[in-house]
Amino acid sequence: MSRFITLKTFLIAIPVLIIAIGLSYALPQVDVVRAVGVEVKRVDITDSETGQQRTRDVYQLQMETPEGRPRVYRNEDNFLYGKFDSANLQAQIQSLAAEKQLVALRHYGWRLTLFSTFPNAVKAWPVEEGYRHIPIFNTVVLLGLAILGFMGFRRVRRAATARAETRRAREAERSQRDALAARTAQRTREAEQKNQADLNDFLNSGDDKKD
To answer: Confidence band (pLDDT; 50, 70, 90) for 206?
Structure first.
């Protein structure tokens, strides 16, 4: 039983972990950072179809936290986020960097130094000191997913309960049939024994008359 529970927990934990990782990457986050500068880097990439190398420009936004720690974000268009103004965002950050303006920068993705990956900036707007961002969009998305997950869990649980009740009903019906068959067999044996006893009594009474 414990092995089954462990396997069941494992099978549930895997998709939950995958969804959590996907949400961590895809849901937009907002960092309060100070604009420092912009940069355009030329990167050599390999075309997946032709196998040839080509060069493309990669926009980067250079920021730093209020504590002075550096932060770098890439600045690329993304259809899913409705971002098609990377050049405008690049110019905006360049303008704000002249006075090291504090900005709220919305982004998605991870910073993985091992693979030289950067989160992608989506939008930025100037803010004042002490600004605290309230993640309304993420809260709504997570709440909606939690409601859907709860409804799905209840539906699965109801289906499992219905299957268990059906199984118990079948087992009870089978037990009743077995008990009925056992009683019928017992009555049949008793009737046969009674008939045999009556026959023996009849035969014995005939012998007594002959004597």
So the answer is: low
